[in-house]
Amino acid sequence: MSVVNGTEYDVSYDFRFVIVSLFVSFVGAFTAVQLAEQRRRAVLKAATATAEAYLALMSAAIGIVGIWAMHFTGMMAMVVELDGKAIEISYDAGWTVFSMFAAILFVYAGLRIAMKDKFFSSINTTATLAQNMQGQSLAKMKSASNVKLAAFVSDIHWLVLGGVFTAGGVGAMHFTGMVSQTFGAKVEWDYAIVAVAMLIAIVAASAGFWIIFRFLAWKPDNEIFRFVAAWIISIAVNGMHYTGMMSATYKVDTSIKTNAQISPIIALVLAIISLLIIVIPSYQYMLSDLRKECDELKKEQAASTVTVTVGGAGSGKKSGAMNLATMI
What we know:
11 helices, mainly alpha, two-stranded antiparallel sheet, 3-stranded antiparallel sheet
């Protein structure tokens, strides 16, 4: 039976690989979330080289593992058929490598921007909260819930902008990754669905950054929210990926020359290898840094008592703000 140009390929999904792709993106995101607090501590200690190393590892964890490896694991879930016959999807090496660097660069920019958040970059988050409360009425200051809400949602422009850049990385990697597909098909796009996919990525990435760089900077010992933040970022990546896949219609085009250089199995192996070579060294570096911190603490004398005195004329609100901020 001859193949007619314009014939639409049948596309379905193997949900086993969908679940695996979700797990891969979660591992990358969770690794980055764990590294974030160490990055913040390094910045506050003015350990510039260490801080930049953590940022690079975070970018690789999200960009390579959370996005790039997830994409090619997710592509294994896509089953393409023509007249009931399965079609093997291979990938162009050049576009595949380009898509990886696109993800890393966008994520790096997004993380660096989001880290400008006033709480994440604050030496004393309680003092930052108190500064936010200055000038407010005592009635408002007495309402801890209002204070928390105001602190959590105010001045989040850096987090949103960082989320936009990171979502751009998800989109750039996804669509250049799809360009790398080679199986004699022409792709037609539903741009309304593409827009929805990008919106999902922006909202979810911004929400994840809000938890990482705002909430966890204030409550760094809350491991549950680290877990939640990682899943939200994973949802951003997977939500964009699979919604973006819905926007594509594949049609037969015999004029397209295939240039297959990476088979599906090799792509999957590369995804697994990238996960291992990013995640394991990231945790090893983090543990090494923590050991150094413990050694430094052992050499220090007993912790000194720090007394903070807030005084001066007209300082009633300022003092009240600091006291309330300390209790929250």
